[in-house]
Design goal:
415 residues, alpha+beta, 6-stranded mixed β-sheet, 29% helix, 14% strand
Length: 415
């Protein structure tokens, strides 16, 4: 019974790295997991090794072969998922740990993996109490082999129909130098020859993350970039933010970064059901069952259960006329129509218009927008005469001191 040393492969010196690769190839990514196998070597049949380990090896693809080997060859007795903040001397989320007891020797057909999950508790004392008093979950050890990617969990994840049957999740672009190639759209007078970038949403909303543009020509010529996502370009889907809450938004077919993988349905008619799932708490809950990593890679996202009939019914109730077309009253989005009267920041929008600024949606006729958004774009055109001609506006605190103040007041009144 021991707490093993943690040391990722990238931080190991060459002799240790070579030894781990030669002796424990399935566990080589972290010295902690190497120690798990080493401890099992010390055991004879019927003897158990109990260890404190990082939790990521229970679901990461790099440990898939090791999980399969241990599920088939050893007896899983008890697994306790501690989560962050489990140690009084270590603060924050530096270590997300599990307690694991593995018995030496192949399990019987009826072997049950018993588990406790106290990761939601915040304080160390609460976690300790949960280990003593918590309800123990039980799942057949052999069933774990049917889980997506052979991930280890306390539920039977392998018997459900997965989202991957109806959609694929695609990784986006890595520029290798974002400050050079990626800008907020308002930093450029004209989007062309730049292209719109469908970035990570900050929350679950129909249209979010549309704040940036990308120097696509420059990226394609850069040796440090990785161009991915071609199979998603021009198609509709769902963009997922790789953050704790896994926020989602509708993807409109533009370029997208690797920090926001997109789900593309195999058939367009599946999109509303998939979007409805991704809006729900169930999506994040199911995904966290198979991957607790803060940033979830795109390969895991479609491994969640998906009941097409159920989510299609929910989508039909929520969107009886189909999914909405692009519309936003947020001026930080390039699909914003440009009119201050329907804006989350009317004074700022009016100021921008007074200085002659126009939003991309006003000048790009190829951009798909809803009918309401197009109507607002037309109304925005009536405000163009209020724009200042030299781009310099002084607004004093006293009304009437300068014509600029009157123009701003007139613009707001017209809006």
């Amino acid at each position: 019974m021991t707490n093993v040393p943690y040391l990722a492969r990238g931080k190991q010196d060459e002799p240790l790295r070579d030894f781990c690769e030669a002796t424990f190839p399935e566990a080589k990514q972290d010295l902690a997991i190497v120690f798990l196998e080493r401890c099992l070597e010390f055991c004879s049949t019927g003897v158990a090794a109990s260890t404190v380990l990082p939790q990521n090896w229970l679901f990461l693809s790099s440990y898939k072969k090791l999980r399969e080997k241990l599920l088939k060859g050893e007896t899983w007795q008890l697994l306790a998922r501690l989560g962050p903040g489990a140690f009084e001397t270590i603060s924050g989320e530096v270590v997300k740990a599990v307690l694991l007891s593995l018995g030496k020797g192949r399990a019987s057909d009826g072997q049950m993996l018993c588990g406790l999950d106290v990761s939601a508790a915040l304080a160390v004392a609460e976690k300790a109490a949960g280990l003593i008093e918590g309800e123990i979950a039980q799942v057949w050890q052999g069933v774990q082999l049917q889980n997506p990617n052979q991930s280890i969990g306390f539920e039977d994840l392998g018997s459900s129909i997965l989202l991957e049957k109806f959609a694929s999740c695609i990784q986006g672009i890595s520029t290798g130098d974002n400050p050079r190639f990626v800008f907020n759209f308002w930093e450029k007078n004209n989007i062309q020859p730049w292209e719109y970038l469908d970035s990570s949403p900050e929350s679950i909303q129909e249209f979010q993350g549309k704040t940036q543009c990308i120097d696509w020509i420059g990226v394609t010529k850069s040796e440090s970039s990785a161009i991915r996502g071609h199979e998603a370009f021009g198609r509709y889907g769902v963009g997922i933010g790789q953050m704790r809450q896994l926020p989602a938004t509708l993807y409109l077919g533009y370029r997208f970064p690797n920090s926001s993988p997109v789900i593309i349905p195999t058939k367009p008619e599946y999109l509303s059901a998939i979007w409805t799932l991704c809006q729900s708490e169930i999506f994040a809950q199911e995904l966290r069952k198979i991957n607790q990593k803060l940033s979830v890679d795109n390969g895991y996202i479609t491994k969640v259960p998906f009941d097409l009939d159920h989510w299609s019914r929910v989508a039909a109730e929520r969107y009886p006329d189909g999914l909405p077309k692009p519309y936003s009253s947020d001026p930080t989005q390039w699909i914003f129509h440009g009119h201050p009267a329907d804006s989350t920041a009317p004074l700022q929008v009016a100021m921008a218009r007074l200085l002659g600024y126009r939003w991309p949606a006003e000048t790009d006729r190829s951009m798909e927008l809803s009918d309401d958004a197009r109507a607002w774009v037309e109304r925005s055109a009536t405000l163009l005469p209020f724009a200042d001609t030299d781009g310099i506006v002084c607004l004093p605190p006293v009304r009437g001191e300068l014509a600029a103040a009157d123009r701003l007041i007139g613009l707001l009144a017209a809006a």
